[in-house]
Specification:
With 115 residues, the chain is α+β, with helices and mostly antiparallel strands. The chain has 3 helices and 8 strands. The longest helix has 12 residues, at 37-48. The radius of gyration is 17 Å and the shape is globular. The chain starts with a helix and ends in a 5-residue tail after the last strand.
Amino acid sequence: ENLGEALAGEKAHTSAFEARMRVDEYCKTLCRKKYTPQEMEEFQDFAILEYRVNMRLDSLPIAEMNRFAYEDDPDKTIEMYNLGYALGGKLEDALSNSEKPEAPADSYVLNNHLR
């Protein structure tokens, strides 16, 4: 951590995640936590503002890859990388139409896993 990171509020913390190469693991629980309604409201505000979680692995930033198809040529795609991953998002954006439960219009989800 350097002075600029500290002044900008970007203090680095050690994560409890363990990363191993060439080891397949599926849905391994890191921790369990209950949030208060006030904390969930803060998370919702951060999701609305499109906050991203930034992490580093071996001093390199992790990134999220998104693939987009061109409207006029769906077979042609472009890959884009965004640093980190979204803290959360609107429920309608997170689920397909068949998975959507009956929920209020402005329901948000908190990303609680990495893959």
